Amino acid sequence: MGAKALLVFALLSFSAVSVRQAFAENEEDPGLVMNFYKDTCPQAEDIIKEQVKLLYKRHKNTAFSWLRNIFHDCAVQSCDASLLLDSTRRTLSEKETDRSFGLRNFRYLDEIKEAVERECPGVVSCADILVLSGRDGIVALGGPHIPLKTGRRDGRKSRADVIEEYLPDHNESISVVLDRFASMGIDTPGLVALLGAHSVGRTHCVKLVHRLYPEVDPALNPDHVEHMLYKCPDAIPDPKAVQYVRNDRGTPMVLDNNYYRNILDNKGLLLVDHQLATDKRTKPYVKKMAKSQDYFFKEFSRAITLLSENNPLTGTKGEIRKQCTVANKHH
Q1: What is the CA radius of gyration of the chain?
Q2: Which intervals hold domain Plant heme peroxidase family profile (predicted)?
């Protein structure tokens, strides 16, 4: 065999090997796919849906929690259920940071995990349970059904130390909020739609008293101020007393486009709500969503999908936690 033929043969063998390796890696790591558990735990998504419905019947506010979890977990570096890890002697839990104030109902996620584990032990990740319970919670609140991919694996460490870098605060400028979301691939209409989640649930007085005391923010609708002052009578609320204002007094339990009409009417509770309705970059989308619930749902579904696919652990990365609150013990 001549030198040239040898070289061609070597190149062909090499490319065959690299193709084989690529295939092998792909088989190990198909990334996120629709219906990832169809062979390993075909009932997984139905069990999660059933549990979300049962829990919602018993405790209506669980659905808000499921929805918030997607944002608080996936926006911080990776959609890997790091949010659910308890504090250890060495590390603080994300759940215990200031940015997670008001997050609750984590114990019910453990109930969903237990139900899935009874059917298929050690197969379905907490990260997928977190995302799918969020999706089903959105439906419980009257929102759209969003087809989401699965195949996430669970992270092993809390990301509490970097939360401030990733999760925008409700008092930050709209420019900062837009930048944080853009880094996840979520554009301006996507951000405007995600904030439509403020159409349900409540805002704790701690988060909004700076707009009422020492003097009332003149940007607030005077009709709404009266109600806010009645609900938040103290300039320094007792954080243990659960004092709050409903985000949307008209349809507080329904995910709908009422939020956009409220903020255009200067009834947004948080500074970010007010900015969304007044900033020239976001206002056109606010007006469009106030007019069309279909448009809001379309953009909301797109943004939730992008958020749920933010830098997941797949293939052999991470692990499948046995319990969502603790990383597996490695002997």
Answers
A1: 23
A2: 31-328
Which residues are known to be catalytic? Answer: 72
Angstrom distance (rounded) from CA 325 to CA 82 = 9
Q: pTM of this prediction?
A: 0.88
Compute CA distances 277 → 95, 165, 219, whole Å. Answer: 30, 25, 11
Of 24-28, 139-143, 155-159, the range with the lowest mean pLDDT is 24-28
Collapse the DSSP code of 203 into the 3-class scheme (helix H, G, I; strand E, B; otherwise coil) and give the result. strand
Residues 6+ apart with CB under 8 A from 76: 82, 83, 94, 159, 162, 163, 166, 167
Contact assessment for residue 292 and residue 190, using Cβ atoms and an 8 Å cutoff: no
* Interior/surface letters 85-119, b for 16+ CB within 10 angstroms, e for the rest: bbeeeeeebbbebebbeebebbebbeebbebbbee
Per DSSP, the three-state class of 150 is strand
Residue 313's DSSP bridge partners are 153
Neighbours of 157 (CB within 10 A): 13
What six digits make up the tokens of 280?
Answer: 């020239």
- Tell me the per-residue pLDDT of 233-258, one tens digit each, with 9 for 90 and over: 999 888 777 788 898 888 888 999 99
The CA distance from 37 to 131, in Å, is 14
**DSSP β-bridge partners for residue 246:** 202
Residue in 259, 256, 260, 247 with CA at minimum distance from that of residue 204: 247
pLDDT digits (tens, 9 = 90+) for 275-320: 999 999 999 999 999 999 999 999 999 999 999 999 999 999 999 9
Smallest CA-to-CA distance from 94 within 86, 69, 102 is with 86
| Low-confidence winner among 10-24, 53-67, 202-216, 302-316 (lowest mean pLDDT) | 10-24
Q: State the Cα–Cα distance between residues 262 and 277, nearest whole angstrom.
A: 9
Would you say how long the chain is, in residues?
Answer: 331
